[in-house]
Amino acid sequence: MTFTKDSNLHPKRKISGKRPVSDGIDIFIAQRKNWKTNCIPFLLISFFLFSTPVFSETRNDTVLVQQLVDSAMKIKYNDPEQGRNLANQALLLARKSSHPKFIGMSYSLFGALLDDQGYYAASKRKYDTALICFQQKSFAPGICNVYNNYGLLARKQGLFKEAIPFFSYAIRLADSLQNKRLQARVYQNLGMLYNDMERSSLAIPYLDKAVSFYEDMNIPVQTGRALNNLAIAYEQTNEFPKAETAYRKAMVISEQLGDSLNLAYILDNLGGLFVKMKDPAKGKLYHEKAWKMGSQLNEPNALTLFANNMASVSIELHNYKDGIGWAEKGLKLATEIGNKSEMKRSYGNLSSAYESLGDFRLALRFSEKQRQMEKEIFDEELAQKTSEWEIRYQTTQKEDSIRLLAQDKAIQQLTIEAQDSEIGSNQKTIALLVAGILLIASFAWWRQNQMKLRQQIALTEERNRQQKLGLTAVIQAQEAEQKRIGASLHDSLGQKLAALRLQFQHIFGQDHPEMQKLIHQIADESRSISHQLMPVTLQKMGIVPALKELLEQSLNQSGIQYDFDEHGLENRPPEVVELTVYRAAQEILANTIKHSESEHLSMQLYRTRNQLVFVAEDDGKGFSGVVPDSGMGILNIKTRVFNLNGDFRMEPGQEKGIVTTIRIPLAA
Question: What does DSSP assign to residue 531?
């Protein structure tokens, strides 16, 4: 700011060093000049003195936030309550500093705490908030960390395919930043994910890089963990010498650090490795060392695992009584901590040991308990996945509704603006009159339109009803004809072929083996066609045995591996529903064998509260980005499903292949 000269303030006189006689105005002007001259330096000095503590305080707050976050991350596993307290303090200070980066760090810490406790949905919301804060400041390390945490959340929930893109994006960010700590963390997490997916050949490069990064940074704790994971990957790919080398390197690091628990796990892993290498005696020695070390640490989860491994190796060495003792220890520990997976292993070990000792009654008893535990684990996993599917479906529906509502509001706004523009040039009275007339006319038109619409809806519903009745009649006639033809093939042609085979053997004996083989082939093919046209297993035993038989007959000679899961089908669904699912499965299997080039097919059938759900997923070449909507077989299945008010979808898999989903309401 500049100040004007005194002469400009009072042009008649100039102020000199000697004060003249005046009416007081000169004195005021002189004082004003002195006030400005003296106050400017004073204000600048005061601003500097008062602002410096404020900036210093803000800087101290952000440093303290970082320290609180680091401290909470160190203790969150052993003392989650104290971790939450530190997280709250960090968030309060971060909000005080109004810095999005540190607010994001605090929310990310809350997400990690909730993640550790299994509150995955709440953890995801905290990470979402952290991501928004980091994006405001374009804080790339924070964004990378959030995407890494998204991948960890998906992995913990068993959503392996969904975790891959999160980790991949985090790796791209970490590589672009050349941040070795972030790179090591994300590379190791992606490698562990591929280990979980039993695709360890893909895991090895990532875990190898993670080991290199941790070695370069001289972080022995993380180096040891990465080596252990790398050894597991080598073991799963049957590269046993490399696995042993990695385990022993990790063991040396754990011994140097005094990390007894991790050392115990590595010893146990080495024991399992030697068992795989056909040296169970050496494997037992390492399992025993792991047990002794775990007993000193009193870690129930570790002891449960070690006891069951001791049971398995004892049984393999034919020390069945020792195996029973170890299995009982493992069962007791697993029951105390509620570890159903290890309880299942204990029951399996007990069943195997008693069977080897010839006590088949006890072997059968423990085998039944093992199957029961498998069912409980499967039911829990299925319930969790079903809940996740329902949440995703509801979220998608909600997002669609919000988007449509926003579109409607935008259209309404444009309509209002257009009307305002047209009416603005007219007089208010004429505009109101015209609007009234338009309103009356619009109402009359709307009323008439509604009546026409109701008539059209009623006509369409009746047409659909008649069409559905016609389709039902066609499907019933088709099934009846197939049953008739199948019965004829089985009863008439099948019997004649059997008679022909007996007569041929009676006349020619063992001569003409080629002709006998041809008769056998014709009979088998006739029987197969008969079963396809008239599925006897479906009629007598139900959909589950029928699908198992269909999978076995269709895929055994194709080289395609398969698995089948079913749940909640103690009571049979209606016959028409079973038949629809069976015909759909026939068509899907035929397409898979002919066109998919897949190596594995997964089929699931389960019953929810009011639906029967059928899912088939292969890992073949898929649609090449295009979902087919034609083809007689698919159209036939769609017609059958829609006729039962069901839903039929064919979608590309997340990586490759086709996912077919059929939902049929059981009240239909």
Answer: H
Is the pLDDT at 172 greater than 70? The verdict is yes
Cα 206 from chain centroid (whole Å): 21
Phi-psi region of 662 (alpha: psi -120 to 50; beta: other; left: phi over 0): beta
The reply to whether 455 and 575 lie within a common domain is: no
Residues in the chain: 668
pLDDT tens readout for residues 178-205: 988 889 999 999 989 998 888 889 989 9
Kind of pairing between the strands at 611-618 and 658-665: antiparallel
Q: Is the pTM of this model over 0.70?
A: no
Provide DSSP, 14-37: ---SSPPP-SSHHHHHHHHHHHHH
Going by the DSSP 8-state scheme, the letter that residue 20 receives in this structure is P
Which residue carries 């024991």 as its tokens?
271
Beta bridge partners of 602: 563, 617
Residue given tokens 């050949």 in the structure block: 201
Task: Let me know if residue 471 belongs to a domain.
Answer: yes
272: amino acid identity, one letter: G
The per-residue pLDDT for range 550-577, each reduced to its tens digit, is 888 888 877 889 999 998 888 889 988 9
Greatest Cα-to-Cα distance within the chain, rounded to the nearest angstrom: 157
> pLDDT: is 309 or 446 the higher one?
309
Of 259, 263, 282, 261, nearest in space to 271 by CA: 282
Same domain, 601 and 508: no
Dist. CA 445–CA 450, nearest whole Å: 8
Q: What are the start-end ranges of the H helices in 298-359?
A: 300-316, 320-337, 340-357
Half-sphere exposure of 4 (CA within 13 A, CB side): 7
Q: Which residue type, as a one-letter code, is found at position 290? A: A
Quickly list DSSP for 54-93. Answer: HHHHHHHHHHHHHHHHHHHHHHTTT-HHHHHHHHHHHHHH
Alpha carbon distance 71, 93 (integer Å):
15
> Is 322:312 a contact under the CB 8 Å cutoff?
no
Cα–Cα distance measured from residue 633 to residue 12, given in angstroms and rounded to the nearest whole number:
108
- Buried/exposed 227-243: b ≥16 CB within 10 Å, e otherwise: bbbbbbbbbbeebeeeb
By the 10 Å C-beta count (0-12 exposed, 13-18 middle, 19+ buried), 624 is classed as exposed
| Average pLDDT value for residue range 101-123 | 80
> Is residue 584 located within the same domain as residue 642?
yes
474 and 590 belong to one structural domain: no
Residue 531 Cα to chain centre, angstroms: 39
**How many CA atoms does the CB half-sphere of 588 hold within 13 Å?**
30
pLDDT in tens, 48-76: 444 444 444 445 556 666 666 667 666 65
**Domain of 587?**
536-665
d(CA 356, CA 363): 9
Split into its structural domains, the chain has a count of: 2
